[in-house]
Amino acid sequence: MSDLSVEERVIDIVTELFSDDVEVNRDTLFVDAMDREEIVMELEEEFDIDIPDDAIEKFQTVGQAIDYIEDRVRDETTTFTCGRNNDP
Fold it and tell me: Do residues 25 and 62 make contact, with C-beta atoms less than 8 angstroms apart?
């Protein structure tokens, strides 16, 4: 896994897909559903997660995607850690 934060990784991916001429940050808006879908496919691959359609539809900004992924990554880490700690 990368040493970059979730936020840095998401911004890097969005920057690659949008254009080098656009400064991407948490407040960057997704232009349309096609942009959002393309970006989500890349994010799912990068973070090895599935993002359900109802969550994708709520992503209006890059920051909302970052927050969602941070929660998912944290939940999966907590579940894995708790499961390991409970094993005899």
Answer: yes
Residue 47 · residue 56 · CB < 8 Å: no
The residue among 78, 84, 71, 65 whose CA lies nearest residue 26 is: 65
So where are the chain's domains? 6-83
Closest CA to 17 of 2, 30, 3, 1: 30
* Tens-place pLDDT, residues 17-66: 876 677 899 999 887 777 888 999 999 999 999 999 999 989 999 999 99
User: At the fourth CATH level, which superfamily is domain 6-83?
Assistant: ACP-like (1.10.1200.10)
**30, 59 contact by CB (below 8 A):** yes
**Would you state the structure tokens that stand for residue 46, as one six-digit string?**
């990068």
- Going by C-alpha positions, the residue among 3, 1, 5 that lies closest to residue 66 is 5
Question: Global pTM?
Answer: 0.80
The catalytic residues are 32
